[in-house]
Amino acid sequence: RIKFGCFLEYIEKSGLEFDHVASGHYARLEDAQVPLSTAATTSLSKRLFRAPDPVKDQSYFLCALTQKQLSKVIFPIGMYQKKEVRELANEFQLPNRNRPDSQGLCFLGKVKFDEFLASYLGNRPGDVVDAMTGDIIGRHNGLWYHTVGQRKGIGKVMFPLATAHGPWYVVAKDQGRDIVYVSNRYDEDDFARARSEFELEDIKWISGTPPLNVKDTEAEAEWNEVRFDMKIRHGPKIVQGTLVLSGDGSTGNVRLDNKDGGLAPGQYVVFYQIGTLECLGAGVISEKHWAKFLQTQQNEISAGEKQELKVK
Predict the structure, then answer these.
(1) CA distance linking residue 201 with residue 282, whole number of Å
(2) Which of 98, 158, 187, 194 is 20 to 30 A from 260 via CA?
(3) What angle do CA 248, 249, 251 make, to 5 degrees?
(4) Are 94 and 101 contacting, i.e. CB atoms less than 8 angstroms apart?
């Protein structure tokens, strides 16, 4: 929003003449001729591709850029492996040629991530709840200190008797009630669907329109189930699954071939053409995802409690 939003808007309004903004992101752009429906002519659009370096690839972060933004940017090092960039830096004797690779939030320096969050967001304690039983088994200092799929560090905010029954994983967060839900059955069948199927919203496509294969014709009311390569977070891992759009095409349902380690509302899912490196578009995991699972669990817990009362 800064480099491709505020910065671009500022220099455009300032009247400065420029062709492109150069960015150090690891990604590639290619020109594509797009036929216009109103005449036998074409317009120029941009296609976004993953970088050859799978570890450094940053197409995941660029998935929501518009055609206007992409037309104003170039990625000069996007076609290189990181080691090749190092070699070029040494060849040109750049002052930062020996700087270590940044990891995570590079601007933090030596500041620990939790300390950074505490300084800006403070603490807002709440309960840690077993998602399967509804029991309170700990107290956390703030939802923002925990992520879905987290295992490391969660034991520090749980009661000693509960930690003995681990390993525990964060499975969901309830912002309205400041609850962190955890489970020691995250790898069992109870979570199979919640870890492999979810709703998406705010779906956008790099070209501005959905790929042709998601619907047979414009007149068709139904959307097709289409397979894509996907990224659910930054990194080299690519997963496979299907997408079915719904309504006007801005929402949809994803089914992964295999369970994922941590699906969190607000997280981007990026779609790539199978067998290629082209980034086609992305959507955001909906709040409905874990809300549906937690409601089901709450219903089962309530039903169990009622049954127990009948037995007594």
Answers:
(1) 9
(2) 158
(3) 105
(4) no
